[in-house]
Amino acid sequence: MMLEMDKVCAAYGPSQVLHEVSLKIHDQEIVTIIGSNGAGKSTILKTICGWLGTTSGQIQFAGERIDNNETKDIVRKGISISPEGRRVFPKLTVLENLEMGAYVCTKREFEEEVERVYQIFPKLKERTKQLASSLSGGEQQMLAIGRAVMSKPKLLLLDEPSLGLAPVMIDTVLEAIKIIKESGVTICLVEQNAQLALEIADRGYVLETGKIVLEGMGRELLRNEKVKNAYLGL
Amino acid sequence: MNIFLQTIINGVIVGGTYALMAVGLTFVLGFMDLVNFAHGELYMLGAYFTYFFVVTIALPHIIGIPLAILVAMLLGLLIERFLLRPVWDKDILIRMLLTVGLMILIPNVITVMLTAVPKKVPPPFTMSPFILGNVRVAPIQLLIVLVSVFIIVLFHLFMQRTRLGKAMRATFQDKEVAMAMGIDTKKIYAYTFSIGCGMAAAGGAMLSMIYNVFPAMGAITTTKAFAVVILGGLGNFAGAILGALIVGVSESIAGTYISSGYKDAVAFILLVLILMVKPSGIMGKKGGIEK
Ligand SMILES: Nc1ncnc2c1ncn2[C@@H]1O[C@H](COP(=O)(O)OP(=O)(O)O)[C@@H](O)[C@H]1O
Ligand SMILES: [Mg+2]
Fold it and tell me: What ipTM does this complex have?
């Protein structure tokens, strides 16, 4: 078991957003969490990566409790995130962004890893000396994902990587996600675009107002009537 | 013509040390959103620490001055850890008032401990001025401006080239994401403040060799450094350096051609004039501070 959330509750101040969320992510899986805007998908990722504390419940990573640990320590255990809205460091160059991604690594590991990222995203190599703020939305998304894999994570959290991208760009990003998975990384993919997410996911969870309401294999959920009506617009 | 040239050169030399003060201040302001009214107090302490190491315990300047800067940086770490860290998440006003408190506290502590009688640090050498044509430059002044430039360049390279410098920039561009990279952002805050203190102390340490050292020397320095920083554009390094040179040269011109009594007013008159034309400062961005 890579990650297990057990009845996790979380809140922003007085307003509770997650209600006893339980989910499991096995080694080498792509697991997706789908749900409409405001359901709490990003909040789940925030509790995993330590940006937000939980109010109750447990999160275990590789058999060890990590809920309410400090973010900087959670990365070192092997979890990294490509956040919603990309959030690349705008005034750092592409290469410097990747360097920050490898902050917990040695220089040697950084040099190896950067080559691998440039293989996955050749576009980034062309832009290596450019400021991240000068990149297009799609390129920034590549950079955010590239930066997240620099630390050689065991578990990669992807928050809405397709948001606001042109269809060709979405394909590039999906291809990259598959390559990253092939290299042995477990992936938790959060998406509003349910169709796309369920197509590449092994398993999926459906989140509604902070509660898991449905879970199943990716293919199953694609055929599920409720999912079709609510999330696939069919 | 020669008097004019001499005036300009004097101005550039003074401007060099203003630049060091202003870069430190604008760094802490732009990166940490900390309006540090105690900046000049670290300048004052840098001068006193230099007095302690060079005069009281008679170390050579080349050891005493770096030690003075180091002690100021350590003090900066302590101030950050025990006074600022608890209030980083609070309103910007709280932090600002805290530095105002330090601005009042530190010089008074020094006065109680050492009295307000000015102290002098002798320069490391006595040499007759360099003379180029009719322009004279005192070697000690030249040394001071060169060291200021050296420190600014070193700081720039540190921020641009080193892992820690990049982590600082990353932290102040997006703290949360920086944490997710594994950066210990608490330490980054401490180091940033400490470096700002070190730059202020370096200015004080060097000017202690040509000016008197006294408890109230920090306050006027703080206000002038603010004038320079606002003039150049908040949080803008190039602006701080340019602003420092403009103020240094204008002061020198005013001192020569009007009256040296008006010298200290020049920075503020310039400040008002420039802000009337360009409210964000010479090189400031409209949208506010750039990290
Ligand atoms: N920083 C925050 N402060 C307060 N409320 C928040 C914050 N972030 C998100 N929320 C609220 O929490 C709920 C879940 O948000 P989020 O996890 O971002 O949803 P999703 O990612 O599924 O769109 C929403 O109602 C949102 O308004
Ligand atoms: Mg979201």
Answer: 0.95
